[in-house]
Amino acid sequence: MKYIELKANEIDRELFSHFIRRQSVTQCWRKIDGKWCIKDAPFTDDWTEDEYNELIACLKNTITTGGFVLGAFSDGTLKGFVSVEPALFGKNKEYLDLSSIHISEDMRGRGIGKELFQLAKVWAKEHGAKKLYISAHSAVESQAFYRAMGCVEAFEYNQCHVEKEPYDCQLECLL
Questions:
Q1: What is the pLDDT of residues 34-72, one digit of tens each?
Q2: Which of 3, 86, 124, 163 has the CB geometry, 3.0–4.6 Å to 129, for a possible disulfide?
Q3: What pTM, to 2 d.p., does this model score?
Q4: Boundaries of each N-acetyltransferase domain copy (predicted)?
Q5: Do residues 160 and 175 make contact, with C-beta atoms less than 8 angstroms apart?
Q6: How far from 161 is each of 9, 122, 165, 167, CA to CA, in Å?
Q7: Can you tell me the distance from the alpha carbon of 8 to that of 167, in angstroms, rounded to the nearest whole number?
């Protein structure tokens, strides 16, 4: 696996031609009456062409505004990626936003996500953050990954994320 920092002009639909976003979800974490619990919520998460186009625009914006996008490549094919936004935020300006981390379905469970997460932490710390902020998919499997990476419920919620994805779990990871 090769980990390569991407440039904006390298991000296009062709880059994702062999990337399998699909995630079959059966259970999700939900906060009910202030308490976290697991609920049945079966669905298949996958990206439409419009969502790929939105992702491409977002990743390009991350790079052009000074953020970080790193790809994981197997034999020249994108199999994972992570992005971190450049602007510190929060009451004490201590957070940087880990805006995406995804591993192709055919490559999950091989440590790629862990390596991408660790490299994102290094970049964030080098750019002044004390914590990574993650508005994370609430699927049980996704949350297990973030907990294994040392994430906990965010001390300070980013309301923009809460409004955009109300079912996401708002997490942070100390750097």
A1: 899 999 988 888 999 999 999 999 999 999 999 999 999
A2: 124
A3: 0.94
A4: 4-175
A5: no
A6: 27, 23, 6, 10
A7: 30
